[in-house]
Amino acid sequence: MTEIKQFDTVIIGGGIGGLMAAYRLRKNSPEMHIAITERGNTLENRHCPAGKEKTCVHCKTCSITSGFAGAGAFSDGKFNLGTAYGGTLGEELGDDKANLYIDEVDKILNEYCTSGIPKVYRSNDELKLKCLQNNLRLLDMNVKHLGTDNNYLTMQNLINAIRESGTELFTFYDCSSVEKTEGGYLLHYTNGETISAKYIIIATGRGGANFVADFCRDFGVRMRSNYIDIGVRVEMKDIIWREFSSKIYEPKILYKTKTFEDRCRMFCFNQGGLVSAENNHGIITANGHSYAEADKKTDNCNFAILSSIRFTEPFNQPTEYAENISRLANMIGKDSVLVQRFGDLIRGRRTNEHRLSQNTVVPTLRATAGDISLVLPHRILTNIIETIYALDKVAPGTANDDTLLYACESKYYSIRPEFRNESFELIDNVFIIGDGSGICRGLSQSGAMGIYVADCITK
To answer: Considering only Cβ atoms within 10 Å of each terminal Cβ, which end of the chain, N or C, has fewer?
Structure first.
């Protein structure tokens, strides 16, 4: 029988929330025996075999979405310095307290960022007015941009510091279940290992939604449906959005559609960026990133346009709904993301390889040319088309025929456990943080939540 490893606190998940929690626990209680278990690999060994000219090869564990530093490891490294968007931590703790913890995340990142203090992009009243005059709402917040390359190095430095402080890091430890014992808990992993702990911090991210749901059912924690976002990754010439990106870097814009009065949002903007593919448990979805170094920039920019859906009773499987739409795109795309020219979509025709080869916007991801209208429901597709035309009013050229739409991009926030208290405790000594809690939707608030829960445990 394998010997059971014993720890005071086990953190399930090595994304930024889990890392910040471990960092703070060690600082508050140097004697505490801490472990982080991660279903993926170490950051330095996370390598995606699908390059710019290849499609996803369906690795058993996706190196883009899983591993130490989490799904944010290869992101654009944007940190929102406030509570206006990126989650609802301000509603849970109050804006003042939430902002204090977001500032703590910022200070820690600055300490481990060896390339100098990253640039902060400030809000811009002129652009806000321009959007308001066209029935768009530009969300207002300062944003710090590390870039994919600097973000990677910063996360690696932070992980090294956590490891050197005595915290034990375990890779390819995929937690399957938790068992309550007289003195604490036993955590069971798919590799056959078992770990005991007094405290547990669940930091599994969006990819751990099923684990969180199973845990809540096992321990009688009530859940409520959260909303989901379904849409596309949009790619066009970078110069079209240069007025916005040069001043505020990332335009996050909300639009209320006229046909259905639904909320659509533009976000995750990548200046001079690349569109990328992610493997989420065998489902291939689109995403994007951008490097800070000028020689790694492209001529394109990309961003997400997502339509928000909140289901009501009796339906209670929103995540499965979004996953099945993405699976349909993969089916039509022969196990890949679909890409379509906006002009072809409007004309009701499928994009083929010939039209794509003649396109003025050269795709940065090798995706399958096709027809996204065969995948996205009418309501969602109508919302996306309306939003593109609305954005074209503030950034003319957005609705060009050659604009590329990649399907699907989905964000799941469907699991929202009910907490016992403001410490985000689910049951005795078990806490949840980050995107998996249904509260956070970004790096800053996930990290802040990790620090806050660490303080709750130790103080």
So the answer is: N
